[in-house]
Specification:
Helix content is 28%, strand content 29%. The chain has helices at 15-18, 76-92, 133-136, 139-150, 211-220, 235-242, 255-268, 282-288, 310-327, 345-359, and strands spanning 6-9, 23-25, 29-33, 41-45, 51-57, 62-68, 103-108, 117-122, 125-130, 156-159, 176-179, 184-189, 192-197, 225-229, 247-252, 275-279, 293-298, 328-338, 363-369, 388-394. It is globular. It starts with 5 loop residues before the first strand and ends with a strand. The strands form 4 sheets. The protein has a 7-stranded mixed β-sheet, sandwiched between helices. Strands 2-6-5-4-1-3 form a 6-stranded mixed β-sheet. Strands 7-8-9-10-11 form a 5-stranded mixed β-sheet. It folds into 3 domains: 6-68, Archaeosine Trna-guanine Transglycosylase, Chain: A, domain 4; 76-189, RNA methyltransferase domain (HRMD) like (Transcription Regulator spoIIAA, 2-Layer Sandwich); 207-394, Vaccinia Virus protein VP39 (Rossmann fold, 3-Layer(aba) Sandwich). By secondary structure, the chain is of the alpha/beta class.
Length: 395
């Protein structure tokens, strides 16, 4: 086995690793023995020279992302095993063979034991997104494992990492095709068709993590007037129309997002008079809206990507939800979400509860939502549960 650079942790700073948490912060490091560069596989030891784990080194607040709590070589066999194990879970979930769904997350970073790596599957196109240089330096081996496991079930592999890798002087990692050249296509999700551009779209092209929550919106929509805020691709709007809503209004400040919404609603419900899309600022729309809605969906972009803006984010969630509580019709249903990893489930609920109290509305929780099982969360890495949602009845 190759001799690795050793990183020794300060006394007491080994406890999180003993609880199998996959991150080591820079402040926990006592000394580094040997040369180390961005993305190297290193070995971690406690202050008494006992081996703890192996992982990718990175110059940043999170200094090491753990790949294994046993000594390991990241050779081709390792990547075949880990990529294959992740695919097997999606097979077990029925996603690989589901005739009504052709889009799912194949690898979900820490949730699949591969911190820093996201792999999404779009009906034969695979989008790879790296969030660490350790993963980027193993890109060729990862792609080989993807090709070997999926075989003729894929025709395109696109690396979309230019904007997600940490910025480092002298290191460039442009996005681009690694196999094939198809940059967009259509996929099925629970029988609905969506157009996806994985080259130019947000994230890897589509918010796959809301699949089951969109289905739930459809179940609550019959006979209701639905308002979909921050509509983006119009996913919730499509499900609301399919669920039998009386009308559906989609609102987003981005003209491009509204165009996507119109494209996707037309793909499933062409020329349906129940749907209308508006390019408007969400807060402005809520402040000045006429008429009423009895189902409102709030799915904003992440208000807090880092802890230092957490308080501002919580105030933003409170303000947004208070506006919705004030304007939703009596007996209405509010779906509200946070996709900010820095915002805990408890803090999100506190913001929503404060909003309801300020609005003077009586509210009860019907569902507590999270991401679907193809976005698994390691029990030892609760930060991986980034998507939080509440479904509430407002009297």
């Amino acid at each position: 086995m190759t001799e690795r650079t050793r990183i020794v942790l300060k006394s007491g700073k080994d406890q999180s690793l003993r609880r199998l948490h996959p991150w080591v912060f820079s402040g926990a490091i006592k000394k580094i023995y040997g040369p180390v560069r961005e993305g190297d596989l290193v070995e971690l030891y406690d202050n008494k020279d006992e081996y703890l784990a192996s992982g990718h080194y990175q110059d940043g607040s999170i200094a090491v992302r753990v790949l294994s709590f046993e000594k390991v070589e990241t050779d081709q066999a390792f990547w075949h095993k880990m990529i294959g194990r992740a695919w097997k879970l999606r097979e077990t979930l029925g996603l690989v063979t589901d005739p009504g769904t052709s889009v799912f997350r194949w690898v979900n970073a820490e949730g699949d034991g591969l911190p820093g790596l996201i792999v999404d599957y779009y009906g034969g196109a695979v989008v790879v997104q790296m969030h660490s240089y350790g993963m980027f330096r193993n890109l060729e081996a990862i792609v080989e494992a993807i090709r070997e496991r999926a075989g003729d079930q894929i025709h395109t592999i696109y690396n979309k990492s230019a904007s997600t890798l940490p910025k480092r002087a002298g290191i460039t990692a442009p996005s681009g095709f690694l196999m094939g050249d198809q940059g967009r296509g259509s996929v099925l999700e629970n029988g609905y068709r969506f157009h996806v551009n994985w080259v130019e779209g947000q994230k890897t092209g589509f918010f796959i993590d809301q699949r089951e929550n969109r289905r739930l919106v459809g179940k609550w929509s019959r006979g209701r007037r639905v308002l979909n805020m921050f509509g983006y691709t119009g996913g919730f709007s499509v499900y609301a129309l399919g669920g039998g809503a009386d009308l559906v209004h989609s609102v987003d400040s981005s003209k491009r997002a509204i165009d996507l919404t119109l494209e996707n609603t037309a793909a499933n419900f062409p020329e349906d008079p129940r749907h209308r899309a508006l390019t408007r600022d969400v807060f402005d729309f809520l402040d000045n809206m006429t008429g009423s809605y009895d189902l409102i969906i709030l799915d904003p972009p992440a208000f807090a990507k880092h802890q230092h803006v957490l308080n501002n984010a919580l105030q933003g969630y409170k303000r947004l939800n208070q506006r919705a509580f004030e304007r939703i019709a009596p007996g209405g249903i509010l779906f509200t979400f946070s996709c900010s990893q820095a915002v805990s489930r408890e803090n999100f609920r506190k913001s929503v509860f404060a909003a309801a109290a300020n609005a003077g509305r009586s509210v009860r929780i019907l569902h507590q939502l999270t991401q679907p099982p193809d976005h698994p969360v390691s029990l030892f890495h609760p930060e991986g549960e980034y998507l939080k949602g509440l479904v509430m009845e407002v009297e």
